[in-house]
Design brief:
Layout lengths: L14 H21 L12 E7 L6 E11 L1 E6 L7 E3 L12 E8 L7 E8 L2 E3 L7 E4 L13 E7 L9 E5 L6 E4 L5 E4 L20 E7 L5 E7 L10 E3 L13 H8 L15 E4 L5 E2 L5 E5 L5 E7 L3 E6 L5 E5 L7 E10 L5 E10 L19 E2 L29 H21 L1
Parallel strand pairs: 9-15, 17-23
Antiparallel strand pairs: 1-2, 2-5, 3-4, 3-6, 6-7, 6-8, 9-12, 10-11, 10-13, 13-14, 16-18, 18-21, 19-20, 19-22, 22-23, 23-24
Length: about 425
C-alpha cells in the first residue's frame, strides 16, 4: 500500500506588503491617540473677572464674584487654611444645586467676631484661591452692639429700553470702607439696610454724614456696568430710577479733564487733592509712610481700563488690577505684610500705550508700635520709562485668572479610543504572523 503525502503550501504575504501594512496601522494609531488629546478638546478655563468682599461685620460677610463664562459656583470656607470644610451657595440657589450664571453672590453667616477666615471659590468643580497654595482670606470685625442709624437705601434699575434689570448686582461704595451689596428683585427694585459700615484697613466702625459722597455700581448678568455718583442723603431713597446705558465697562468713555476726575474720584481719594498727583501715580502708601495695619489698601491713579501690575518686596507678592473709569485703582491686600520695610513696585501704561514703572517704600509697624512724628509727604513721582522694574520679575502674572488649587479631575477613559487601540493591536499581531 502506497501512501502519498499531500503537501499543503501556506501562502505568505510578501514582506514589503506586510511591512507597509504594519507601518500604516502604526501611523493610524498614532493619529487617533494624538487627536484625542489635542488642547482644543480640553474644557475652556473659566476665570474670575471681578470680586468683592462686602457687608462685613462681626458675624457675617457677603462675597461677590463674576466668572468669565456662565458657570456653577459656590464657596468653601473655614478658620484654617487646610480645613475648608463648610459650604455656602448663592442666596438665589437651592443648596447643593448652584445655577449656571456669571454673577455670583453668597453670604456667610454665624461667623465668630474678630476671626480670620479662609475661603476658596469652587467653579465647575475646580477650587480657586488667591494662589495655588493659599486660599482667599478675610477677617471679621470686633463685636459691635450699636448699629448705625441710617435710613434704608433703595431704588429701581432699568435698562435703556425701559426693561427692568433682574438680579443685577448693586454695590454701594464710600471711601476706604468695605462696600455694601445686594441684588435687584424681579421688579427691578433693590434694598440695602446699612446697619454697619467698617473701615477696610482698621476694621473700625465708620459713621458717614448725609453729605457723604458714595458710588452705586450696578452690574447686570450680561456684564453691563452703570456707575452713579451721589450722596448718602440722595439715595435714601433714590429720587429717580437708575437707567443702565447698555455699555460694557471696557466701552465706557474715558473721563477727560482734571476737573471731572476730581469730582468723580473724591470719595475714593478720601478728600485728598487729586491735582497734586500725576495722571499715573501711586496715592497710597505715601513715600516713607509708617503704617500700623498689616493689610493696607494700595491705591493709585492711571488710565481708565489699563491694567496695573504690582509687586511687593521683599515679600515677592504679585497682584493685578484694572484702573476704573474714575482713573482710580485700588487693591485690598488679602494677605498680611510682615513688620518692617516694604517696597511697592507698579507697572502700567499711559494713554499712548507706553509702559511706566513707579515705586514707593513704606514701613509696616509691629503690633502696638506707635507712629512717631509725621510721615514723609507723598510728593509727586515722575514715572520712569519701563523697565524700572525688571520684566523677569513678572513672567506671566494673571492673578485675576487665578490658578486652581488642584489639578482638574479626569472624567474617565475614552471608550472609542480604547476600542480603536484594541483593534489596531489585533491587526498588528495578524500582520506579524503573516510576515513570519
Amino acid at each position: 500500500m502506497h501512501y502519498s503525502v499531500l503537501k499543503i503550501q501556506q501562502r505568505k504575504i510578501p514582506s514589503p506588503i506586510a511591512l507597509g501594512l504594519i507601518i500604516a496601522l502604526s501611523a493610524a494609531l498614532t493619529f487617533v491617540l494624538n487627536s484625542t488629546n489635542k488642547p482644543g478638546n480640553e474644557e475652556q478655563k473659566v476665570t474670575i473677572s471681578t470680586s468683592e468682599i462686602a457687608n462685613l461685620r462681626d458675624n457675617t460677610v457677603s462675597i461677590f464674584w463674576r466668572t468669565s463664562e456662565p458657570s456653577a459656583s459656590y464657596i468653601i470656607y473655614g478658620t484654617q487654611q487646610d480645613g475648608l470644610n463648610q459650604q455656602v451657595f448663592d442666596e438665589r440657589d437651592k443648596a447643593h444645586n448652584p445655577s449656571i450664571r456669571n454673577n455670583h453672590i453668597t453670604t456667610l453667616k454665624d461667623l465668630q467676631a474678630d476671626t480670620t477666615y479662609y475661603y476658596e471659590i469652587v467653579i465647575n468643580g475646580k477650587k480657586i484661591g488667591q494662589t495655588a497654595q493659599r486660599p482667599f482670606t478675610f477677617k471679621t470685625t470686633r463685636k459691635i452692639s450699636s448699629p448705625l442709624d441710617i435710613d434704608p437705601i433703595y431704588g429701581k434699575i432699568t435698562d435703556n429700553r425701559g426693561q427692568i434689570v433682574v438680579e443685577g448686582i448693586v454695590i454701594l461704595k464710600m471711601g476706604n470702607t468695605y462696600p455694601l451689596i445686594t441684588y435687584t428683585k424681579t421688579d427691578g427694585s433693590f434694598l440695602i439696610a446699612p446697619c454697619c459700615i467698617f473701615n477696610s484697613t482698621t476694621l473700625e466702625p465708620y459713621y458717614p454724614s448725609n453729605e457723604q459722597a458714595v458710588y452705586l455700581e450696578i452690574i447686570d448678568e450680561a456684564g453691563n456696568i452703570e456707575i452713579k455718583k451721589t450722596t448718602l442723603a440722595d439715595i435714601s431713597p433714590l429720587k429717580e430710577t437708575i437707567v443702565m446705558d447698555g455699555q460694557e465697562e471696557s466701552e465706557k468713555k474715558q473721563l477727560g479733564d482734571t476737573q471731572d476726575r476730581e469730582k468723580v474720584s473724591e470719595v475714593l481719594l478720601e478728600a485728598e487733592n487729586i491735582s497734586k498727583y500725576e495722571d499715573v501715580d501711586i496715592i497710597f502708601p505715601k513715600q516713607g509712610a509708617a503704617i500700623p495695619a498689616t493689610k493696607p489698601i494700595l491705591k493709585g491713579l492711571g488710565e481708565p481700563g489699563k491694567k496695573v501690575i504690582g509687586q511687593l518686596d521683599p515679600d515677592g507678592k504679585l497682584f493685578e488690577v484694572k484702573v476704573g473709569e474714575d482713573r482710580v485703582w485700588d487693591f485690598a491686600l488679602p494677605f498680611e505684610l510682615t513688620p518692617g520695610e516694604h517696597t511697592l513696585n507698579v507697572i502700567t501704561e499711559d494713554n499712548t500705550g507706553s509702559k511706566l514703572a513707579l515705586n514707593r517704600t513704606f514701613t509696616i509697624l509691629k503690633s502696638g508700635e506707635a507712629v512717631l512724628g509725621s510721615a514723609t509727604p507723598s510728593g509727586t513721582i515722575t514715572p520712569q520709562i519701563f523697565p524700572t522694574i525688571a520684566p523677569t520679575a513678572l513672567p506671566s502674572l494673571s492673578p485675576i485668572q487665578l490658578t486652581p488649587t488642584s489639578p482638574p479631575p479626569v472624567t474617565g477613559s475614552n471608550i472609542t479610543s480604547f476600542a480603536i487601540f484594541s483593534v489596531a493591536l489585533v491587526l498588528f499581531g495578524v500582520g506579524m504572523i503573516l510576515l513570519f
